Each structure stands twice: as C-alpha cells, then as structure tokens.
C-alpha cells in the first residue's frame, strides 16, 4: 500500500507566528497555551492568519472478537445499535458536534450488524468484526491496509465537503481492550499499565481484561518478536481494531492534506500512535482534543508529546472530546489572525517591552 506523503511543518512559520503573537495587544504569553495552539495552527496552515471553519468527525465503527471474552460492561450488539443512534442524531457526539460546528460521518469498517444505507454512513465493511486478539490475529495484514484506506478515503470525503478541522471518533464494544494491547505494544509497556475500566467493568472483570491483554501481547510477540520495534502495520493487524486502523487512516490522509487533526480518547489515540509509527511527520498535525479518564490515555499523549486542550474527565469516545475542542482551536486561530498589534491599536507597551 502507498503511505501518504506528509510534509513536516516549516519551523519558520512557528517563529514568525510567535513573533506576531508578541506584537498583539496583550502582555506577552498572556493567552498561554492558546498562543501555542495558534502558532501550531499557523505552521500547519502556512499562514500567520490561519482560518478554521467547519469541522468534521469521522466516527470509525467496528466489532471486536475479543468482546467474547467478557471484557466490556456492555454486550457487543451495542456497537451496531449505537451506529443507528449516530445516524439518527441521538448520540452524545451528535449533540456536541451541533454545538461545536462539526459534521458527523460514520464509517463502518467492521460492524457485525447489517446497516441501512444512509447519507452520512460510509459503508466500507472489511469483515464483520475482528478476530479475538487473545487467540488469533485481529485481522490479516491486507485487511488492516483495507481499513486504513477506508479511513483515508473517509477523511478525503470530509475534506472535499468542506472540513477545515478533522477528528476521528470510535465506536466498538471491546475496543478499549484492543487499544490497551496496541498501546502496550507500541510503547513497550505492560498490560496492567495501560488497561483501564473502559465502559466501567468491575474489579473481577478488570483483572480478567488485564490477563486478556497480556495473553494477546504474548501471542503477537510469538510471531513478531519485540512489538515495540515490529512493523506497525503487522502490530495493527495482530492486535486490531478495524476501527482503530481506520482512525489511523483518517490521520494519515488528513496530514497529507495539511489539515489540523484532533485526537479523541484512548481507542482513537491508539490509532494516532499507529499513524505516527507509520509516518512520523503526522505527529506535527495532531492536537489532543482532551484527556480521557482512561488511565492509558495519558501515557499515549505523553508518548506523542501532546498536551490536551481540555480535561473534563470524559470517558466515552465517539469523538466527543475531540469535537468539544474545536471551538478552542478556532479561537486560537482567530486570536492570532484577528487581534490588533500594539502599533495598529495605538496601545502603549510596557517600558520593559519598549526597551526590547
Ligand atoms: C451506550 C454506549 C455508547 C458508547 N459510545 C462510545 N462508547 C465507547 O465504549 C466502548 C469501549 O468500551 P469497552 O472496551 O468497555 O467496551 C466503545 O464502543 C467506545 O466507543 C460507548 C459505549 C456504550 C455502552
Ligand atoms: O477514552 C475513551 O475515549 C474511552 C473510554 C472508555 C470507553 N470508550 C472510550
């Protein structure tokens, strides 16, 4: 498969944007992290007056064979039921997207249930659910490529239809187990360090979930050796998540198009880790929309070197936390683009600033 060509951002834009920020009518760095966001947006958009309009979230959906291990607090049927809920506009992500100015696309790369045709549903089923990662590869390498390509194609559609800010979301009962296995593999961590409660499993189920993740990792290592150094596409195929692979595809195509990209919670950020392993320059286009309550999410963000925009304790997925950050990112761009300089506004700078 052809991986996208992603250009690294030009550090000259970062410098020029910081220089402009320091001329705007505010004490230097008074807008703190918002300024840093604006600077990164300027570099990505190659403009000191970056404009961000409509956003989009591609909610990547698939079932997980590992759900049969009893690793979720909910039954696997909920995946397909929630996809129908997304299409009817009844899910959390729909309401948040309305409030935050984002279009919701649903990408089916592996939901077991048959889904009705719908304008906002991108039907690209690779297989009806992944294999049980504890016992077998989640998918073949060819299927992982197909899921990645489906994510890339969905991102391109969202961009063609006007998105200037792009996020991925996830739906797939059992996917915090797959995300934990992938995160442990990519970062070289133990199962217990990255496994969390997901939808809210009790103590006994949690211990079982850690064992399932550990056994999946051992199984994958038997065929791939050191997972932290193995081919990322092979790791993705072994430990899965068809929708995690699709989320990686959204980030790959979005970075190729030069658009700011926003990560959501634990499963989507596993996809971001995969995308960055496949193509390191993708990292420069990523913003962490929020930090989820899932404990492994902080480890993922640290590995990516991303500070979250929001910390609301969300633990849902669907792209909710990503989309919620869109207004903050738009504001960061507007501040840099639209604020007056001290000179333009005739506002006096401090004596210290005048002395330079
Ligand atoms: C009604 C409902 C709506 C959701 N929306 C996202 N998730 C989230 O929970 C699932 C992951 O957690 P676990 O690994 O514990 O199964 C994913 O589907 C994720 O998107 C939901 C879960 C439920 C039950
Ligand atoms: O971090 C997330 O996005 C998350 C947490 C729990 C369940 N599903 C998703």
From TrEMBL:
<comment type="pathway">
    <text>Nucleoside biosynthesis; alpha-ribazole biosynthesis; alpha-ribazole from 5,6-dimethylbenzimidazole: step 1/2.</text>
</comment>
<dbReference type="InterPro" id="IPR003200">
    <property type="entry name" value="Nict_dMeBzImd_PRibTrfase"/>
</dbReference>
<comment type="similarity">
    <text>Belongs to the CobT family.</text>
</comment>
<dbReference type="Pfam" id="PF02277">
    <property type="entry name" value="DBI_PRT"/>
</dbReference>
<dbReference type="GO" id="GO:0008939">
    <property type="term" value="F:nicotinate-nucleotide-dimethylbenzimidazole phosphoribosyltransferase activity"/>
</dbReference>
<keyword id="KW-0328">Glycosyltransferase</keyword>
<dbReference type="GO" id="GO:0009236">
    <property type="term" value="P:cobalamin biosynthetic process"/>
</dbReference>
<comment type="function">
    <text>Catalyzes the synthesis of alpha-ribazole-5'-phosphate from nicotinate mononucleotide (NAMN) and 5,6-dimethylbenzimidazole (DMB).</text>
</comment>
<keyword id="KW-0808">Transferase</keyword>
<dbReference type="InterPro" id="IPR017846">
    <property type="entry name" value="Nict_dMeBzImd_PRibTrfase_bact"/>
</dbReference>
<protein>
    <recommendedName>
        <fullName>Nicotinate-nucleotide--dimethylbenzimidazole phosphoribosyltransferase</fullName>
        <ecNumber>2.4.2.21</ecNumber>
    </recommendedName>
</protein>
<feature type="active site" description="Proton acceptor">
    <location>
        <position position="318"/>
    </location>
</feature>
<dbReference type="InterPro" id="IPR023195">
    <property type="entry name" value="Nict_dMeBzImd_PRibTrfase_N"/>
</dbReference>
<dbReference type="InterPro" id="IPR036087">
    <property type="entry name" value="Nict_dMeBzImd_PRibTrfase_sf"/>
</dbReference>
<keyword id="KW-0169">Cobalamin biosynthesis</keyword>
């Amino acid at each position: 498969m052809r991986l996208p060509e992603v250009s690294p951002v030009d550090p000259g834009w970062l410098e020029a944007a910081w220089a402009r920020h320091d001329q705007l009518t505010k004490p230097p760095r008074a807008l703190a992290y918002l300024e840093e966001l604006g600077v990164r947006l300027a570099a990505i958009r190659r403009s000191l007056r970056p404009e961000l309009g409509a956003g989009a979230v591609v909610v990547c959906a698939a079932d997980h064979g590992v759900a049969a291990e009893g690793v979720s607090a909910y039954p696997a049927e909920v995946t397909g039921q929630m996809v129908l809920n997304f299409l009817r506009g009844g899910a959390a992500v729909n309401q948040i997207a309305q409030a935050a100015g984002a279009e919701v696309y649903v990408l089916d790369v592996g939901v077991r249930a048959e889904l009705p045709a719908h304008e906002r549903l991108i039907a690209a089923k690779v297989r009806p659910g992944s294999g049980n990662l504890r016992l077998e590869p989640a998918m073949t390498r060819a299927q992982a490529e197909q899921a990645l390509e489906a994510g890339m194609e969905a991102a391109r559609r969202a961009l063609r239809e006007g998105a200037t800010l792009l996020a991925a979301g996830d739906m797939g009962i059992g996917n915090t187990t797959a995300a934990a296995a992938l995160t442990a593999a990519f970062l070289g961590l133990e199962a217990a360090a990255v496994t969390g409660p997901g939808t809210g499993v009790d103590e006994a189920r949690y211990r079982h979930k850690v064992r399932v993740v550990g056994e999946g990792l051992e199984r994958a290592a038997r065929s791939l050796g050191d997972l932290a150094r193995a081919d990322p596409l092979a790791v993705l195929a072994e430990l899965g998540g068809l929708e995690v692979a699709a989320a990686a595809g959204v980030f790959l195509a979005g970075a190729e198009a030069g658009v700011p990209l926003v990560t959501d919670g634990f499963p989507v950020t596993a996809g971001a880790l995969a995308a960055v392993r496949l193509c390191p320059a993708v990292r420069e286009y990523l913003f962490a929309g929020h930090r989820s309550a899932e404990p492994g999410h902080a480890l993922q963000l640290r590995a990516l070197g991303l500070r979250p925009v929001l910390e609301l304790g969300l633990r849902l997925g669907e792209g909710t936390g990503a989309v919620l950050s869109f207004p903050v990112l738009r504001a960061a761009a507007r501040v840099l683009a639209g604020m007056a300089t001290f000179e333009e506004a005739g506002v006096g700078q401090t004596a210290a600033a005048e002395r330079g």
